[in-house]
Structure formats: structure tokens, C-alpha cells
Amino acid sequence: MSSTAVTELEISQPIPIPQAPKPPKKLKPARKQVKAGDVVKTETVQTGKEYNIWYNKWAGGDREDSYSNKTKSQSRCHIKRDSGLTRANTTGMKYICLFFSRGCCPYGWECEYRHTLPDSTDSMPDSSKDCFARDKFADYRDDMGGVGSFNRQNRTLYVGRIKETGTGQETEEVVARHFREWGTIERIRVLQYRSVAFVTYVSEFHAQFAKESMACQSLDNDEILNVRWATEDPNPVQKVAEKRRLEDMGQEAIKARMDPRIVDAMRAVRALEDGQEIPEEQEDEYADDDDDDDAQPDPKRRRIEDGPTASASPPPGQPEAPTNTSGLLNADTLEGLKYFAEIRKRHGAGVTQQRAPPPASTAGLGLAGYGSDDDD
């Protein structure tokens, strides 16, 4: 009675059905972040006589902190809300819209550039440009701003003018909350009581995007951030780790472009040099390659084998050509010499010619057995 009740209870329970993974969310057409004319362009306060468009400041005046004249940005990008499809998704353009990163692109889906985060797994068409198609330079600017240098892969941002209201751990959490929107963060270091933080991204493209997105923005205390490129980390441990990371990236890039059969062959040769045994799977693969080579012989070898000496045996008294391939001449060369010797013998059969007797010993000449000194 009890067993029957338990069986009926078990049968009446619903059987869990595995659900298929949800397909990736499709992007919608990108929205227009601002209307034309909403963002007012502010002029830099004149503190000198000449305006330098490269350094974005006045020259010849009083030297002062350029960020004291900076104003808070009037717009900010929101990735989840602003990302979408543009004309670049149909034309094949891979570069990102610079105004989209700053939150002030008025074109939306009509923009010629992408309105998404740069893909960290893909590379840009030109390594001398950043993800916004701006040309890099050999050296950094004096203030470590601008596009950056193509001589160094910089993934670390210097974030200054942070208003600290708590401990270093709380400040680090605030910085991580605002900067993780632009990509995966590798590490964050906060210099407490100095209002400075260093944010290192996994991808260089995400660091480029975050630098433009957070310039003149604020965290939680209405400050104006000073975001620029960080100088090289003097820590020797980090130098070794960065060098190893670049070497691994180079090896992966080379391996992705190489034929896997060449890689396996190189590994097999290295294993033989080290005295290791080749796995049976690789031996069978190489054996199949040898069978294919036998099925399709070399055309040069086919021409030699199709000659008169292919089926004819050497004349009596003439030694056969050695088949040892460890000498100076390979097997193809030896077969060719035999072929020309046979042609010479056939053409000279009807001509009477006095020849000198062959030498008693030809071991030291290195050409014995090729038919070049026969009386016939």
C-alpha cells in the first residue's frame, strides 16, 4: 500500500526539462544621445597670447594648472542605454564613435561609426590608430594626455582629483563601480590621502574608451576628474609580468595564423631531438601523409622513371648505381646520371671510337658505378 502510494506520488511529480540557453540579446538601433545644439561648446579661458591646439592651452602666459579652468562635462555615455546598431554595422567599419563615448553623438543609428564598446578579442585594422581611428604618436605628450604612443601598449589610466570621503577600501569600491562600465578591470590601486587612483584594464581598447568617457566626469562627490595615461610601472614584478603577457599574446597570435599541421610537425621534430616518443596518433597521421606522397609522386621523379632506364636492367659487367642517399648526390641525381649514360651509349653504338681502357681502381674518384667510363 505504501509502496504504491510512493510510486504514484513520484509519477505525479513534474519531470524537470532542461532549458536551452537564452540567445544573445540583439542590439536595437542606436538612439540619439543629444539633440543638435544641446551641448554648448565652451572656450578655454585665455591665459596667454597664443593658443596651442595640440596641448589645448594658451602659451606665453602664466603657468597654472590647466584643470583649474576645466568645467564638468555636460554629457555622459550610458552603455546599456546608448549602445545600438549604426550604419557601421553594415559597412564594416570597426572604429568607435568618439562622441558616443562622451555621450554627445546627435546622429544615433545614422552615425558612420560604431556605438558599442570595442571588442577586446578583435584587433583594429591599423595598429597605429586607437579605437576611435585617431593616429598615435611615437611619444606621449608632456601631460600624458592625448591619444597615446604606438611604442607601448598602455592599459593603465591615471585618475586624479578624487574626493575621498571614507577609507581607501570605500574609495576603491567607488572607482570600480564607475570604471567597470567601460570594460573588464584587471586591478585598481588607490593612493589614499593623495586623491589618486590607477585603473588597469584587461584590454587596451577598453582603456582608450574609458579615458574619453570619464574625462571631466565625476564619481559620487561632484568632482572633476583628471584622467590621463599612466607612466610605466616601476615595480620590477609588474615589468616581468607585463613582458610575459606580451610574449604569450605574440605566441597566441602566431599560432592562430599558422597551419596546425606545421605546429604538430615541429613538436614531433622537437620530441625526436629530445629523445621522446611520438604518440601513436601522430605516427598514424604521418604514415597517412607518406601514403599520399606515394600515391602522387613528384613530377620530376616521374619523368626520370618514364625514361629508357625505368624498366631496363644495367648491362652485364656494369655495376648498379648505389642507392645510398647519405653521399653528396641524392637518388634523383643518380637516376638522372644513369639516364644520360644510357642515352650516350645508344647514340654511340654505331660510331667506332677508340677509347682508353678503364682504370684499374676508381674507388677514389667518387664516380664509380655511374657508367661514364665503360668501354661500351
From TrEMBL:
UniProt-recorded Gene Ontology molecular function terms: pre-mRNA binding; U6 snRNA binding; zinc ion binding
Extent of Basic residues compositional bias: 23-34
Domain C3H1-type: 96-118
Zinc finger (C3H1-type): 96-118
Subcellular locations according to the entry: Nucleus
InterPro entries found in the cross-reference section: Cwc2/Slt11 (IPR039171), Cwc2_RRM (IPR034181), Nucleotide-bd_a/b_plait_sf (IPR012677), RBD_domain_sf (IPR035979), RRM_dom (IPR000504), Torus (IPR032297), Znf_CCCH (IPR000571)
Matches recorded under SMART domains: RRM
Region (Disordered) residue spans: 1-34, 271-330, 348-376
Assigned keywords, A-Z: Cell cycle, Metal-binding, mRNA processing, mRNA splicing, Nucleus, RNA-binding, Spliceosome, Zinc, Zinc-finger
Domain RRM: 155-232
Compositional bias ranges of the Acidic residues kind: 274-296
Compositional bias of kind Basic and acidic residues: 297-306
GO cellular component: Prp19 complex; U2-type catalytic step 1 spliceosome; U2-type catalytic step 2 spliceosome
Predominant cellular place of this UniProt entry's protein: nucleus
CDD domains assigned to the protein according to its UniProt record, in alphabetical order: RRM_cwf2
Gene Ontology BP terms: mRNA processing; RNA splicing
Family the UniProt entry places it in: Belongs to the RRM CWC2 family.
UniProt-recorded name of the protein: Pre-mRNA-splicing factor CWC2
Organism taxonomic ancestry: Eukaryota, Fungi, Dikarya, Basidiomycota, Agaricomycotina
